[in-house]
What we know:
A: Rossmann fold
Amino acid sequence: xxxxxxxxxxxxxxxxxxxxxxxxxxxxxxxxxxxxxxxxxxxxxxxxxxxxxxxxxxxxxxxxxxxxxxxxxxxxxxxxxxxxxxxxxxxxxxxxxxxxxxxxxxxxxxxxxxxxxxxxxxxxxxxxxxxxxxxxxxxxxxxxxxxxxxxxxxxxxxxxxxxxxxxxxxxxxxxxxxxxxxxxxxxxxxxxxxxxxxxxxxxxxxxxxxxxxxxxxxxxxxxxxxxxxxxxxxxxxxxxxxxx
Amino acid sequence: xxxxxxxxxxxxxxxxxxxxxxxxxxxxxxxxxxxxxxxxxxxxxxxxxxxxxxxxxxxxxxxxxxxxxxxxxxxxxxxxxxxxxxxxxxxxxxxxxxxxxxxxxxxxxxxxxxxxxxxxxxxxxxxxxxxxxxxxxxxxxxxxxxxxxxxxxxxxxxxxxxxxxxxxxxxxxxxxxxxxxxxxxxxxxxxxxxxxxxxxxxxxxxxxxxxxxxxxxxxxxxxxxxxxxxxxxxxxxxxxxxxxxxxxxxxxxxxxxxx
Lengths: 244, 259
């Protein structure tokens, strides 16, 4: 069976520092997997390697069975990414940004795709506004529209609801739940929001110091570690130096 | 190559320029100032210099040609710097756009930017100083194309530096042409340079282009050997620049410099 994402013995080193150390995991079709870990544990580096933005020192990433480093351009057509640390050109209007990225992803029927996404993400009234002048919640929804412009089958989300108010955060989570159910996409979600991960993810990868220290379904991990919730599991795992 | 992707990246910069009056003004303002200034200098030298006596428009024509080179090169760099300033590098490089498509789009967009600035300035020269660049005749086309290629080449080299070293390379992107200008012999014949500098100058296409421009305007003779030599050198530098650009992108992918 071909997985949407298959990470095989993946490592990344920068001179003397090892950022990611021989990690392995798979994400099946129509599955959301959470990637949890403290800042600097290697989550973003892992995502960058999955996107082909960064070359691994060792190992490989397969997207739908194909090596991203050997098939980067063709695979990127079916992938996309959102992060609060990556912005869209601020001086362009929302619509102009969506047109530009629609063209870069060679989206067919771009007009109707933009109409669909602006309706689903409540962007109709923002389309002619300058992106840099939007609130962070509005910018987040625009970035999400950009990330879905090419109808990706593989979506990578790096803290997609960071710095959002609870209502907007809930809207984004609900939208992702609905979109994934309808379009059957595979998602890797890196987040520090435990409720978000518990709500959206069928399985979780716990990462620390560049390695995956534990993995499983949220309820399994809570039970296994004898804790009340995922946040307590997370704290136990990252604070315990000798357990792994 | 995909026309849609090339057009998409062009649109990104077209929207940026056309949405902002200060940006359009900025494109037109500097060439106009530059050419007006050189126009008056040109008039002064035409009156008091025996070398320029017979050809009033030599300095001004060379100034326009040099400005075209400068605008093309800076224009190319600016397109890259815009992506850095807007923190858009990641979005760009996770889109399925090939390096060759990025280069093609930027080459075309840089030309449009340069022309937006230069066409009004060239039009100004005729009523203000009674000079027309068209006096250079058909070879003008070859000279412009040669300068355009060299401008793009410099733009590619600087953009490779921006990819490899990030925003820290920004200042160098502004100063590259100033470093080469003395060796380009834009306003004076190559004999003016000390011998060691002449050797450097002969390794650049600029000297052949500007020597030829002067030769056409002063002696009314066209030496196509100079033009061909400039193209040979341009071709060599362009191949080096494209290779460097690809190399820098690969290095950036190894060292996580794109973010």
